[in-house]
Design goal:
Layout: H1 15-32, E1 45-47, E2 75-78, E3 87-91, H2 96-100, E4 104-105, E5 107-114, E6 117-120, H3 122-125, E7 130-139, E8 148-154, E9 158-164, E10 167-170, H4 172-175, E11 183-189, E12 198-203, E13 223-224, E14 227-228, E15 242-246, E16 252-254, H5 256-259, E17 268-275, E18 284-290, E19 295-299, E20 305-307, H6 309-312, E21 325-331, E22 340-345, E23 352-356, E24 362-364, H7 372-375, E25 380-386, E26 395-400, E27 421-425, E28 431-433, E29 448-454, E30 463-468, E31 474-478, E32 485-492, E33 504-509, E34 512-517, E35 532-537, E36 541-548, E37 554-561, E38 564-569, E39 573-579, H8 594-597, E40 613-614, E41 620-621, E42 641-643
Parallel strand pairs: 32-38
Antiparallel strand pairs: 1-31, 2-3, 3-5, 4-7, 5-6, 7-8, 8-9, 9-10, 11-12, 12-15, 13-14, 15-16, 17-18, 18-19, 19-20, 21-22, 22-23, 23-24, 25-26, 26-27, 27-28, 29-30, 30-31, 32-35, 33-34, 33-36, 36-37, 37-42, 38-39, 40-41
Bound molecules: calcium ion (4 copies).
Length: 653
Amino acid sequence: MRTDKSDPHYGSMSIAGVLALCVLFSLAFAMAQTKTPSAGAVPQFEDVSKQAGLTTSHISTAEQHYIIESMSGGIALFDCDDDGRLDIAMVNGSTVEHYRDGGDPLITLYHQDEDLKFSNITQSAGLKRKGWGMGIAVADFDNDGKLDIFVTGFGGNALYRGLGNCKFEDVTDKAGVRGSGFMTGAAWADYDRDGYVDLFVARYVHLDMNKLPEFGSNEEFCRYKGILVQCGPWGMEGESDLLYHNRGDGTFEEVSKKAGVDDPRHRYGLGAVWGDYDNDGWPDLYVANDAGPNFLYHNKHDGTFEEVGLLTGTALSADGQELGSMGVDFGDYKHEGRLSVFVTNFTDQPNNLYHNLGSQGFIDEGWASKTGQPSFPYVKWGTGFVDFSNNGWLDIFVANGHVYPQVDAIPSGVKYRQPMQLFRNLRDGTFEDISAASGLTQIPLACRRGAAFGDVNNDGNLDTAILNVGEPPTLLINRSKNGNHRVLFKLIGTKSNRAAIGARVTIRAAGVKQFNEVHGGGSYLSQNDLRLHFGLGTAKKMESVEIRWPSGKVETLENLAADAIYTIVEGSGIRSTTPLPPPAGGAMNGALPPAAAAKRQQPCCSPSPWAGVRTTGGFCRWSRRVEVGATARPAAPRSALFHGPHPSSSERF
Ligand SMILES: [Ca+2]
Ligand SMILES: [Ca+2]
Ligand SMILES: [Ca+2]
Ligand SMILES: [Ca+2]
């Protein structure tokens, strides 16, 4: 049913009433507030892990005598029951003793029951396969509208087919994706554009669990700054990589060799992410290799790839060094219309920022961008280009943690548990380290691995979940209050794969063009929110929103209002619009002293007819969804123009 949004008496309170309340509250808050000069400029994070109920520990030994104990694992933000709230899947890890005994359940699944309250539903979800979990990536491989989970592991992966309502069926063996060896990064993309997502799986080193290299046994490969440590990866044999082509019938065929992504030289593969770096409409693949050159595979449109890492300048550091690479993300951090690459690396190395120059390849601006110096001492893993401040510019987040617990015995230098880092985009190709100003350095240190990004509490600010080795995960809620507008897009493919992995959204707002692509796996062995998020700064609307679906179909929406979550279906436009709370900012949204904070238990201030209610978490809950074609805010045009062909009856949906 279409609702009449022009009715001023819609809802329980009139617009005039809400406005009057808003003025009152604004005055009250303004009077009570202490102004801080930088408020709004730097994102602020709150660690809610404990009160959110994220209490299950990742599994690891304290000593980590073997390299296999250091590499797990990833974390995923995705909505397993399609209720609009992100749930969290954490890879569990294991120990050599446990593994020899059958291993540990590969992942823990937390359902978000209400705002930022999670419960562990792993057992009832049917996620029972045991082993040694490493990475995670989410997609809808069978296009049935239910998200599926792929977990990499040492000695065997798991593919959990979604049945709806956060229940899963283990189809690993039926699908033929169990694999073997030391599997790490996984990433989904429909590389041959047949409407079904395919799956790349990186593999690390060759390891025989019955003949593990003894701790400290080799003077060359099992030493670090003079102390005894686990052996490897140096001196170890590597493993090839895998590519599973989706046959569309629930099974996969391993085609890495045929496709040219098998890594015949057996580099130590870790993080992997797909992205169309050359804008030809076909997904390309970046693979971060530890202690060796990285791979950039260009998609040749015929089911095969050409490895162009060295040719494009994305394999080594600026000074020609092979670095120990872990995590990776693609992002257009300078609004140039091209995806650049950020890669996290081992200690005493900078991170790489491979700036995409188009036809001239890439140039590593790790040092020049000023992300190199502050990251140099740490061992760096989970990462993402993320606009935490909603100003339309991508910042860079990095999760750190050493591989050797023994480094704590070395008097100087970095320790095993390390701080997280955030680099603010200064819009000139350089970044500023705002780890301290954003509150990240006040969060207890941990040895971190995967990091995933998404809007966990649906307030329009991107949040992050981080895996901590041997400890429960960290959930950081972004409490920024800068008044900036923003938007999220949930895409549903019809001709394209249903989760729209690989879809590209390009928006134009206040004359600025931004784009991003939907990723099935990335960062370090992790999965971000499948919804694409854009910060819009002061822009209250987008002049245009162009969606390039993986099928190749391009559709454009015009004059779309900001501050909403849009669900868009390939071929039929906006299916639903969920308003976001009004951007927090200005007088009523600065840092609140305790007395004023108590007033948060009030109706949300907004002239919107969709008056929200503040929950105990301090943010708004908005219940009403707007029908197809309607706009989110009363001030916006009454309906967004939709240009694009209508779906034909033959399209799957
Ligand atoms: Ca959910
Ligand atoms: Ca599915
Ligand atoms: Ca391409
Ligand atoms: Ca949020």
